[in-house]
Design brief:
360 residues; alpha/beta; Arc Repressor Mutant, subunit A; Rossmann fold; 2 domains; 13 helices
């Protein structure tokens, strides 16, 4: 049986109709990105507007706006009558959905990045090494961090639930999530484990977002500091110790090889006897040929000149063992994301987490 990664294009190279569908999807993505960047839907959020009124408010060419409105009408987001254009119900839902708008922000960055990949590949050859781009914006502003956190939560919240469905605590646990974004995993931990307490460790802008998002959960504490470093060097802030569980969720893949090893070693040292390290990453299969989504992510990182390094499933296990932990369980949470449970063994001490269910 073939898997989706055996044929990542999902169609034969000589399938003309499939290429047309691919081109249509690309153009539709470009339309949505440009609509979002112009603020066209936001401009219509308060009611109907004429074409010339839209062009004036958006400071854009009227003919281009007209064609965009027609295309958005075909996509089901706008409708027109003799008085002008207005949002459909679907358009209103899109404009009011912060997660969808955050994804459009991300899609806009992707659109620029992938559209100029060939140029970027040549530029990087001639660039002097410098500070890598900041995921949260050059000023570490909270608004940018909030949009980034929304994208992470939208993409990973379901995976976090599936991850936790396979483990149960054997005692009241203190959980430390390093690089925990807005605390979406910590909130899920508190919802599932009534006796758990959580620490979320983040950079200042994201830590503020996490404090706001977790304000209603007194069992979550957010700490600010340089815990992950900049991708090329390790973090400088010491980790709190004596915790029962350390979570490293989609953070190793964003840093270079030496900081990867150091972070896992530091995380293992922070564990109490019987404590568990939960490594949850997008990883390559041992043959390094897939999953395709993971490989595409690596291309994007390279195009930004970042220092992230994808690891294979075998390397993920080695990192755990090299830190002095026993890898007690491993399972695929999704097609591209794999979890490994490492334990700091101690005589007569039961591991803080127990893996349950089908871990294939």
């Amino acid at each position: 049986m073939h898997t989706p990664d055996d044929h990542p294009l999902a169609f034969s190279p000589d399938d003309e109709a499939a290429w047309q569908r691919l081109a249509r999807g690309y153009r539709l993505a470009g339309l949505l990105v440009s609509t979002h960047r112009l603020g066209l839907l936001r401009c219509l959020a308060n009611g109907q507007a004429t074409l010339d009124g839209l062009a004036r408010e958006l400071k854009a060419d009227e003919q281009v706006i007209e064609q965009m409105c027609r295309a958005l009408s075909s996509a089901g987001l706008l409708r027109a009558d003799d008085s002008g254009w207005r949002l459909t119900e679907a358009g209103q839902r899109l404009d009011a959905d912060p997660v969808a708008l955050a994804e459009l922000d991300s899609l806009g960055v992707d659109y620029d990045r992938w559209g100029t990949l060939h140029t970027r590949a040549r530029e990087l050859r001639n660039e002097e090494p410098g500070t890598p781009p900041d995921a949260f914006g050059s000023d570490h502003d909270i608004a940018t961090a909030h949009r980034y956190a929304l994208r992470l939560a939208a993409r990973h919240r379901g995976q976090a639930r599936r991850l936790l469905a396979h483990i149960t605590p054997t005692r009241p646990v203190r959980v430390m999530d390093i690089g925990g974004a807005d605390g979406f995993l910590a909130r899920e931990v508190c919802a599932r484990w009534p006796e758990a307490e959580c620490l979320v460790l983040e950079v200042p802008s994201m830590a503020e977002v996490a404090r706001q998002a977790c304000a209603d959960e007194p069992r979550i504490t957010v700490l600010t500091g340089d815990y992950l470093g900049d991708g090329q060097r390790p973090g400088t802030e010491p980790l709190p110790d004596g915790v029962d569980v350390v979570v490293l969720s989609h953070v190793l893949q964003g840093i270079a090889e030496d900081p990867q090893r150091e972070l896992v070693t530091r995380a293992a040292a922070a564990l109490a006897p019987g404590g568990c390290l939960l490594s949850f990453e997008s990883v390559l299969r041992s043959d390094e040929r897939g999953p395709i989504d993971t490989i595409l992510w690596a291309v994007e990182q390279a195009a930004q000149g970042l220092h992230g390094r994808l690891i294979t499933s075998v390397e993920q296990d080695i990192l755990i063992r090299a830190a002095g932990l026993a890898a007690s369980a491993a399972w695929w949470v999704s097609d591209a994301s794999r979890a490994v449970l490492g334990v700091r063994t101690a005589a007569g001490v039961t591991p803080a987490l127990h893996a349950t269910g089908d871990l294939a």
